Amino acid sequence: MAGVSEMLLLALDTATPAVTVALHDGERVLAEVSEVDARRHAELLAPGIEAVLAQAGATTRDLTAVAVGTGPGPFTGLRVGLVTARTLGATLQVPVHGVCTLDVLASQAVADGVVVDGEFVVATDARRREVYWARYSATSPGAQRISGPEVALPADVPDGSAPVVGRGADLYPDALGARVGPADPSAGAMAALVVRLLQAGADLSDTAPLYLRRPDVHEGGARKSVLG
Fold first, then answer.
1. Within 10 Å of residue 105's Cβ, how many Cβ atoms?
2. Residues ≥6 apart with Cβ < 8 Å to 48
3. Half-sphere exposure of 173 (CA within 13 A, CB side)
4. CA dist., res. 179 & res. 103, Å (int)
């Protein structure tokens, strides 16, 4: 891809109902697509990657790195993004950077000027009537995580008076209050966060998934013999 900077970062996240993909050249977001559908992560991710590459006039061979949201998130959706990112990294022989999805939402809220004073909570849907949550303090730039991530019933999230970012507030407003800021993560915001953290010398090599609990569907134990 002629005429671009040395960096071309592909960022993607499938830890929430949003399938979001973006390209970043180290200075700005070149292209971004997002679609909300909690049951079609596997179907939407590959077309999303193709779309942002086409918008930027690039191919996968131009990528210099991949960034992926590590959750927390439901097992199936989160796994789609992680497997895709790791496969691309191995195939293209480029580094894969992991970042907590809740950190991305926190960074978005601060960047958008939504949370400007003190502490706030990010909460996303964990299903089973629970939320994934973490607490943050607004900083410049970005946001600093104070506690979490954890999974809990909405009513058990500490300090219900704090502003809440993320779709969890939309699902459980009685317990968490009205949402402020974004409902879902943006891959463009993730890419910008990753670039900033890398420039600060952060190690983002850990791409282990933050499931926080056992998957909803798992293999059963060995069958018992009915023979005596």
1. 30
2. 12, 19, 20, 21, 33, 34, 35
3. 5
4. 16
What are the CA-CA distances from residue 197 to residues 14, 97, 143 (Å)?
Answer: 21, 10, 12
Going by C-alpha positions, the residue among 58, 60, 84 that lies closest to residue 2 is 58
As a whole number of angstroms, the distance between CA 94 and CA 10 comes to 11
Calpha distance 168→183 (Å, rounded) = 8
Strand order in the sheet with 143-152: 143-152, 130-138, 119-127, 164-165
- Measured in whole angstroms, the distance separating CA 39 from the mean position of its chain's CA atoms is 16
Residues 39-92 pLDDT 10s: 899 999 999 999 999 999 999 999 999 999 999 999 999 999 999 999 999 999
With beta carbons less than 8 A apart as the criterion, state whether 145 and 136 touch.
yes
Exposed/middle/buried for 90, CB within 10 Å: 0-12, 13-18, 19+? Answer: exposed
SS3 (DSSP) at 166: coil
pTM above 0.85, yes or no: yes
Q: Which two tokens stand for residue 225?
A: 């013999």
Q: What is the dihedral sign for C-alpha 217, 206, 192, 163?
A: positive
- For residue range 181-224, list pLDDT tens digits in order: 999 999 999 999 999 999 999 999 999 999 997 654 444 444 43
- 3-state class (DSSP) for residue 70: coil
